[in-house]
Protein 1
Amino acid sequence: MFRRSLAVACVAATTLAAAAAVHADTLAGFLSRGRLSGQLRAYDFRRDYSTSSTVNTQAFSLAGLLDYRTAQFLDGFSLGASFYTANALGSRNSNPQRIDTTLMGPANAINALGQAFLQYGGHAVLVRLGDQLITTPWAGSSDSRVLPATYRAACGTYSPVAGLRLTALRILRFKGRTADGFFQDNNYYPATWNGDANYGGIGNLPARARAAGGTLAFGAAYGRSGLKASAWYYRFYGFAHMLYGQVDDTPPLHSPFEPFAGVQVVREWGRLNRFAETGTRFFGQPGTAVDNLTLGAIAGVTAYGASLSVAYDQLRREGPGALGAGVLISPYTAGYATDPLYTTSMIRGMVELGPGHAWKLRATEAALDKRLRLSASYAVYRTDFQGLDSEIYFGVIYRSRGWVKGLTLRNRLGISHGPANPGRGRFIYNRVMVTYAF
């Protein structure tokens, strides 16, 4: 029923576009009142391992992201589209094992229509139908690679009062960061599923697992005077139900030193009824029932452009026989390390490591009138099946101004130690990112 409604919406979009052309003086005039923006990106990723049995990998990509939005018509409607292209420019190693496929998959190029949607905005309502970027805690763009993830979905928000936003979301298909099309899958499907040759996820499901049914989500977010609170319900069809809540507060003390604190909770339950016959395992642990609880907290202080914080998360199973002994199922962030848990680092977090607990110390500094931002963190993960892992992170971002406004230079360095790495050794991941927005 929903798919039929979405198809009707697409037909309506075409009709509305034609009506808009008639309403405008000319079609060219209508389009010229739209807005074109975009980004140019040049990324170089390198992985180095301490064990000789695992080869080091590297990948380079030059990418362009072009976004077009029409002028509004019929009192609030508009159309939008985004074209994404990325190319390795012949820089890939002749040995496929030496290519970092997480940047853009094994292919030399990706060309994709990442967004194509009809939107209505007005009267505190925003509704978008079609292929689009989504920003929610457990389903988002995960934009730490050369191309973002996008979704074929219907999304609506309503802001009845200042600071409050209500969201309803229905995802039908997913285009991962290394894919050139939309598929009925997520990051748990193997690379060969549904012909998605560019897939770069973690592939925990057997190859014969059937298609996912997408996701339904409802959320509420409130922010005012340093207080930020959100509550979400997700139904990952065929996987799990999730309740997620987070509250962060920075009391307005009108002092150079501003303390902040936050808490978060994730409760997940359900049954992998579609995949029970496949013998799915996480961390070598079988099961079909998803049953886990995550509790987290953070506390810190900001002063004179710097901040220091310490965070803690605990993931545990809530019942016997839980899949992966309590694994946290996150179909759109698993393997991406882009979930909202306080202790998630650049390389991985509790979603990737499984049940246990973690803590993280983080420091940041803003300089040069906030154009330069430095960050460093140290995280320790003690999990039931991986043992003791740690990750050191260093990051630097420089945002230019003046005649090169829009240029951003960024370097991210992660150093991981522990049994989750090949050979249970050291893993160094360095990412150089150059972006120009126009």
Protein 2
Amino acid sequence: MFRNTAVVLGICASIAGCASRRVETDVRPSAPAARAQWASCSTVAAAIHAAPQSHFTRTRGGTLEIPSTVLAEHHCGMRVVDIRERDEVEGELGHIVGAQWVPQREIEASAAQWRHDEPIVLVCRSGRRSARAAEQLEALGFRAVASLTGGMLEWQSHGLPVDRSTIAARDDRDAAANSDATRSTHEAEDAAALPPAERLTVDALRARLSRPDAVRWSTAASILSAGSESCIDGRSTSPVLGTPGGDVGELVLALTALEQLTHERVRETALDALLAEHADAFGRIYMHSDAHTIERIQHALSNDPRVSSERRPRDRASTIALLLRPPHELEPVVLEHFTRAEHIGCGHLRTMLEHAESYQTRADLVRASLRAVLRLAWRRPESLDFEVLEGEHHEHGVVEVRVRRAVRAHTRVPMLSPSVVGDGVFIVHPQVEAFVRDESAGFLSEHALDVVGVPADEAALSRLMLRLGEAQARQTLSRLARGLPTFTVVLDPHAPPTVTTTAALTRSSAR
């Protein structure tokens, strides 16, 4: 599309309000070219402000998106905001030249300084987090906020220029001060409202849920189109729709139910095509690890004699790069390490692998599913959202989230941040899980002949997935959340939260 590299860099340097910034290559357009580009910017900016959504498309779930090529061509007049963490912004993928950096946790505070009619494009690694943040801002009244389709992975795949230099402090100094003030206020509220972890109570949880930033509402349809489903892990700092193991946990559950229903084993050779079609139908696949696990993988790969010295990972970024983009000759080695129990950073998937019989599944099926997910990432990087969680497990309870009506595609469902709700809690959404499993049963029944060689009844598969999913969730929570208080929260956008408590989970419930 662009024939002159200097002009490309000049164009992208003016993204986000057309403010020029130093780029890594320091290639600048000539003065006439720069003047022509500025004139073009003025024209484009006026057109975008007149019809801000003309360059955006809306997904099935209702989230606005903009493709990388469209943003590169029609960038002026749009505020481009990168919501990743600093190490990501300055890491291997780099960042879009001129993008404003606002970490996702501070997006609402910074957005208080922006106009509600201003065209805004949010950027993350794969488009998953930015889609959530776009919905978050839309709920606050922003009328033209979009997620960059496929995130920086998609941007880089088109060969569009990036900046890998140290990113400057955020442009909005007032927003930073506002964010600090807001955070200090919330910390003070937290200290007053939340008792120590061992004394998390109904009243404390109700106080947390009454805070304006505690609940973010989405639609059930957006779970499928924007990839909003996450694991129940309490270390997440983003609002989640929790299900054990996230998308990969749901994949293993669905395949396990299919095997039990048909009495046939899943053919691993069919999983690559199945996952590709799943990504096309439902969007990106979420999987998480954690910092400690990545360190173990780094150590193992660095000491594996099959990995040459120049290929050995040196830090977290190079370890993740080797996992997600290995050279062809190392693919079997990476698959082997990736599917070891000690190298699985998701507690649900790890315990499922270690105690497969208790989960009514097969360890080989868990490994086959993990291998298929990783191979999908190699073929289609934009299809996997791989998140690395920080810190230790210090969850203070289990929160089961419900709404007052049946969940359908259009139903508004609440997303909660574990860190906001209770300084770290396991969050599960059983009604949302049932909705997703019903949709997954329909998809998998259509592909049953390819996957197991015999047809499968959709209704029977859906019922079995629901029962098996409940049993697997009990297994994980009884192991990871033993002794923690459990709460049922009923939320309604038009009514105060209802919070009740049940007995703490015990290990005795685990078979």
Protein 3
Amino acid sequence: MIKMLHMIFILLSISSFVGRVYLAEKQPDMLEQKWIKIGPHIINSLLLITGFTLMFQGSWLSGEYGWIVAKIIALLGYIGLGLVAIKSQGDLRWKAFAGALVCFVYIGIVAVSKNPLLFF
């Protein structure tokens, strides 16, 4: 049940991110609406809560946990690049957007493989 909720929040989180970058490019005034400002914070908070719940339910901290550290570092990169993508303009916006998506994909691959080094 928690895993399903976590996956739903992942989809909502990436969808809201892509949507906000689109709005930042096409209709930046819409980003000032209260529900657009607050909604992603609620979704991402629930995403983190379900992620931590899964981490403790799965006893993943008792064994090798380098992959969890890698996910957290990539998450910080995703957040930072996401902020740049939403607040910047032009070429920088799209480079940050691409970088954030790379971080997102990396997090997903590490979550499935439990290997922070991917192909090594």
